[in-house]
Specification:
alpha+beta; Gyrase A, domain 2
Length: 511
Amino acid sequence: MVQTGPPIVTLRSMPGLPFDGAIAAARTCYSPRVIGVGEITEKQRQTIGPLTFDGGHHTVYQHATFEFGLENVSRQFVWSFLHSYPFYNSEQSSQRYVKLNEPRAFVPPIRGEALEVYEQAIVRAWEAYAQLSIVLKDDTFQILKELRHVMPRSSPDRVKQIERDAEKKAIETARYVIPIGAFTSMVHTISGITLHRLRRMMNSGDAPYETQLVVGAMVDLVSRHDPSFFSRVGLEAIDADLLPESSFPRTLEQGDDFVRRFDARLNGRVSRLVDWSAQAEGLVAEAVRETFGLDEAAMSEDEALDRVMNPSRNPLRLDTLNVTYHSPLMRSLHHSSYTFEKRLSHTADSQDQRHRMVPASRPMMTCVDTQAPDYVTPMIVARNARARAIYDATMADAWRAKNRLRELGVPLEFALYVLPNAKALRFLESGPFIALLHKWTMRTCFNAQEEIYRASMDEVEQVAACHPRLARFIGPPCVIRNGLVAPRCTEGTHFCGVPVWLNFPSVERRL
């Protein structure tokens, strides 16, 4: 039986009077002092509020922040709507490290045979997850023992710790068979203007029914606390039929054709460089010189690039707080940009999209649905015949269920929820070098999610071919910090056990 229920939305914290706070911020723009919230009058609420909002002066509504607790929300909703834009902060329950003991998932408003097909698909996926968690544990345990140099004389406590880590690695991979309709929970914080925008757009995306439930509850909670925040300003949700996405043509099986064309372009890569700033190195070097009022005679291109990229000369490269955007020197990295075509699973992209300064035009799954199974297979599954058999059978079963739901007249929006985390997604992703540098530092670490690691290694290799002087000092923290600061690895007890710094990027990741 699938454990389900409506979304649980709580308002954990917010300002006392968010609407008056926005008016006070607006008045401060025209005052020699900071205006207090308690100074706002009814007349100002009636005039300044609508004037600022309707005129597009929305920054005053950004000062109020709302911290929500969200439970019983699907990962499909989070991926397709809640994390599809940059302006939020979330701390989400991780399927990589939290064992999923029972089938808990979103169940749409369907009945009869359709409901039976839907729930059975969810339950079977959970059963496969339990099987894979057991089958893969031995493989992960053997690899971890080798990486951590476990000897016959190693202490029992050390071996037990490695066993626990092996179990975590096993469920990290087994989660690929869990449906994207699975429930998750999180703390989610947004500004006031972002909440207004979510309300406006809650009929968009791949999961509008669930989005309306969640965003509607968020708006209701804020309205109860301060009715003025929505009653005096704001715009209602755009009708689904009026959204521009609704008018795009959708042909039968267009998703299968799209998949074949896209993967042919990738030519075996996870991520393919398709566009870049041709003069990137020269632009960055010139930006460095201009920052300090220098000309080419005073500082060569090579010298400028070395000063910003070489961690032995720029200690900010070693700072774990990522103060890149706050450094006058490192802001020179803004001027080089790269665009990649990439293919990631739904579960990997749910992590990749958290790199909000490297945005992507992610697909509407309702527009690129495939009749045939279309998924990513983790390498440890591919190497284990028994695991691979369970995995492939589970993928086939998920697509059969999805296709059967469509035959029964279930809207594609709801049928998609039974597809697995392994579902492949294809998209363009772009970012400035300043943002990509941070991403590549974090995601070329062996502790990074497998697919994002492979994509990052693809990207670094291709950027190095175009701009070797910029790419010379790219790598995980242990590589950048090697010989300069201790410890090399910033992961503490989660050190992967491999001396990556000795021969990066020519390294083998086994797990």
